[in-house]
Each structure stands twice: as structure tokens, then as C-alpha cells.
Design goal:
By secondary structure, the protein is an alpha+beta fold. The protein is 18% helix and 33% strand. The N and C termini lie far apart (62 Å).
């Protein structure tokens, strides 16, 4: 029987204190989300970054909708449904749809679907978007 190699767990990763990095991480989507509590929620229309560089990098936009409906069932059948749809924010995409940003009044999420290399680069990209969100809500 072949034994698996033993690695010493350290504060920064495995053996020797170096973090373990995969050459080709098997990650389909990497996501980081920031949550916020505002004294006054910004309106959905305010959640559109205005800098030209943001619009050039993330040219596609779709609304994030929240829907609710009530159904009442009785012996007389189903009574009319009263649906409501409310816009909660926007999702922005790059041209190749490899990256996405979701902005709502209480959160900012950054996703990378393709080209993920490592955590440090990914988090750096996410932090770079934070000022765009704060400019919309502050």
C-alpha cells in the first residue's frame, strides 16, 4: 500500500510556511461580497457608477429584481394573485462575461468566472471596485 506524503501544517499554508498555489486552480467562479449598513438606503437609480472607466470595463447592465406574490386558496378555488416586482440593484458584466459586479443598497459582490489566477489578484480586483460603489451610496 502506498502512503500519502505527509505535510506539516503551518500558519501560512503547508510545509515550509509557504502558501500552496495551484498552477491551474479548478475554480469555476470566485465571489467576494461586501455587506453594508446605511443610515439611509440609496435608491436603485443611484447604484450606477458614473466613471467612464467603469462603463468601459463593465458595459452590460441588468436589473436585480425581487418578486413577491400572495396566493389565497379556499374551497371556492384560487383567488387572484397580486404580484409585485421591485428593483433591488444592478448586475454589471464585462464584454466577455468573464467578470460581474452586483450592486444593491446593502451589498457589493464581485465575481470572476474565467481567468482566475490566485486569491491575491482576485481580491485586489474586488477592492479596486469598492470606491465605485461607495461613490454611489455615500
Amino acid at each position: 500500500m502506498q502512503q500519502m506524503p505527509q505535510h506539516r501544517q503551518t500558519e501560512n499554508g503547508v510545509s515550509g510556511g509557504q502558501p500552496r498555489q495551484l498552477a491551474n486552480p479548478p475554480i469555476k467562479e470566485a465571489v467576494v461580497e461586501f455587506r453594508f449598513a446605511h443610515s439611509k438606503d440609496p435608491g436603485v437609480e443611484e447604484l450606477v457608477p458614473r466613471s467612464p472607466s467603469f462603463g468601459a470595463e463593465f458595459p452590460y447592465r441588468e436589473r436585480i429584481m425581487e418578486g413577491t406574490f400572495n396566493v389565497e386558496v379556499s374551497t371556492k378555488g384560487i383567488l387572484p394573485i397580486e404580484p409585485t416586482n421591485t428593483a433591488r440593484g444592478y448586475r454589471f458584466f464585462t464584454r466577455d462575461r468573464g467578470r460581474a459586479i452586483a450592486m444593491t443598497a446593502s451589498s457589493l459582490a464581485y465575481s470572476r468566472f474565467a481567468g482566475y489566477e490566485n486569491r491575491d489578484r482576485f481580491l485586489s480586483e474586488a477592492r479596486a471596485i469598492l470606491p465605485e460603489y461607495l461613490a454611489c451610496v455615500v
